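Please review this one:
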Amino acid sequence: MGRLIRRVNELRRPLLQVALDFISINDALRIIKKLRGLDVDIYEVGTPLIKSEGVRAVSIVRELVDEAVVLADMKTADVGALEVRLAAENGADAVSVLASADDEVIISALNEGKSLDVDVVVDTIGKVDVVKGVSNLVGLGVQVVNVHLAIDVQLRSGRTVNDILDIIKYLRSMYRDIIISASGGVKPHHVRDLVRGGVNIVVMGSAITKASDPAKVVKEVLKDLSNL
């Protein structure tokens, strides 16, 4: 059990994860500076940022966010143990692995995460049958699942977070003990429905990072999360 799972268990309230989906580390640092002093639970070093700046971006964010959990959104598809270890060596508390990866990859990541006290978050992006996929993941020992609606899917199909609410509700009814995060176009007005549907971690990116006043948005979301 790593810091992410411990934080969920200790706080006993929904957490806020801010996704730093930039291609420039300077843009990420600008947002972190604006949110300094606020109780952001998790900072996600986004996949575009890791691909653009390298895994060093994880270590830079780690140095600046105090006690917040740092998640490296590696979206690992192979060499699970290697990528978990690489992220951990750069200060990550949690690492994302694709649900569509082979079982052996996920098991490898889980085992390495356990040895390093790093949590593995399995991302359902691209998974056609999420419910069936999660059933398999639980069997493998996965404890944290990210139900993720891809940006391209949102843009091309018009689907929104509301379209994955039924999936989240069903998963919560079937698996009381897993930690569920939700991401992909999440906006402040989605927060209440997501939490009532069973989400433990609300992941927000552009709704915060592209806002004229990111700190104001975070304060409002944290207030909602505290009152739910």
Observations:
- The two ends are 25 Å apart (CA to CA).
